[in-house]
Here is the input.
Amino acid sequence: MKSSVSRTFLLVGLPAALALVGLIWGGMEIRRFLFTSARFAVQEVEVVTAGNVKKEAILERAAVPARANIFSLNLDDVKKRVEEEPWIYSATVVRALPNKIQIYYREQVPKAILGAGSMYYLNAEGKPFYRIQRGDSLAYPLVQVEGKAKDGDLLRQRVESALGILEEFRQNSLFTDKDLGDLTVRPDAEDGAAPFLVTLRFPPKALAGKGEGRSRLYTVSFGQESFAPQVKRWEAVARYLVQQGKNPRLIRLELGKKVVVKVER
Here is the structure.
């Protein structure tokens, strides 16, 4: 019986064990070759995306060490550094064997300007990403913050919501960007008070030919609930006021289906 087991080990077990050892040794040698060969030393970092962000700024952020091994390089770390560039929304970093690193990115797109002490560009999520410098474009809607916010998270949510109001206006045929004055966020508005104020010109440009006199500014107050029905109520009221030849000072939309309008006397 023992002789049979020994024979089986010699014929099957020992070759299998030797093969396993060979695989492990071979794997270690391959790994050593990949991580030490000069063939896999980074020779080029390529910014593939043809965007507006300067290539030099991206490469400086990437900070890939010269001749770094392409396999030992932590691509997640490179990605995080690239995304620290204010004008980059997200980045993807990949290996292009044998010796190149490629960087792709999505740019930040300004949707509005946040006026809160200093001025910042806001992206579509309502997040400030770049402090505006002298000479930068101001051709974006202005979002202002009324007072000092006690709750930073609530402030961020309401700034993002303010951009949601703007998008609802833009989907309405009665609205043009030239009708907009600014948007005011009230982060500490108490229950029942309007957390958003929008300054608009009256009459709307789309109906200007039907109005009388010069355009003037008025305020529309919004509640936190769904903005689409509120904008529709605004449209109905604005059309009615133009037909009646009346000029609004305030249209309150935060009261549910009830709308309160104050007109000039």
Remarks:
- The longest strand covers residues 88-96.
- Residues 17 and 129 are 59 Å apart (CA to CA).
- The chain has two domains: 38-107, 112-263.
- The domain at 112-263 is CATH 3.40.50.11690 (Rossmann fold).
